[in-house]
Amino acid sequence: MKIAVFASLLASAAAFAPAQQGAMKSSTALNADLSEKPGALLPIGYFDPYRLATDEATFDKYRANEIKHGRVAMLAVVGYVVPEFYRFGFDIAPGLPCSEVPNGVAALDAIPSLGWAQMFFAIGAVDYYGFLGNFDIGKPSFPDDVMKKRETQEVQNGRLAMLAILELLRHDSQNLVSPGFDGLDNLITGLPFLYN
Asked: In 3-state terms, what secondary structure has residue 192?
């Protein structure tokens, strides 16, 4: 008990001690550099209200993650819409052809657990080991301004796709549980007001 009281007294005394003055770091130069990176658009420019990207390495890590998740979201949106129009002819599992797997969130219950395990471990291995490949062959050589514009377009399209897949999932899952709505209609190709 005496040790706890003594420790709390030391902690409270340390709270009023003057803080150590370290070297002042200015983030103005960093923000100026980051405002020139792809993805910063007018009128907002570079947007980091919580100051998560404190240095160039942190920014590069977050930007790489943003691009990766944006690309995955773009594929997810395409994969969410395409089954409305086209199905593969093979079986996803023995006795379960792709044509019988429902679209959207309803497909979560149709895929067997072994299929989920295969997907989980395959995606995890690719993400953990980073099979990035060397795709420099055939990389187009554009002028700097055109390349910056295309990189900005990729970041912006990825941001839009991340919002789009979240909205598609929300829309699909909300309609599956809404009373009076069977949820099995074409949710993607129809207009929302047609279902009322």
From this structure: helix
171 annotated as a binding-site residue? no
Listed in sequence order, the residues at least 6 apart from 160 whose beta carbon sits closer than 8 Å to its beta carbon are none
Those residues whose C-beta lies under 8 Å from the C-beta of residue 35, and which sit 6 or more positions away, are 45, 46
Which residue is it, tokens 């062959």? 137
Residue ranges of domains in the chain: 50-195
Contacts of 73 (CB under 8 A, 6+ apart): 158, 161, 162, 164, 165
86-133 pLDDT, tens per residue? 888 888 888 888 888 888 888 888 888 888 888 899 888 888 887 666
In the chain, the N- to C-terminal Cα span, in Å, equals 67
38: number of Cβ within 10 Å: 17
Q: Are 36 and 42 in contact (CB under 8 A)?
A: no
Residue whose pair of structure tokens reads 């995606």 in the numeric block:
123
Query: Is 170 marked as a binding-site residue?
Result: no
Q: What is the pTM of this model?
A: 0.67
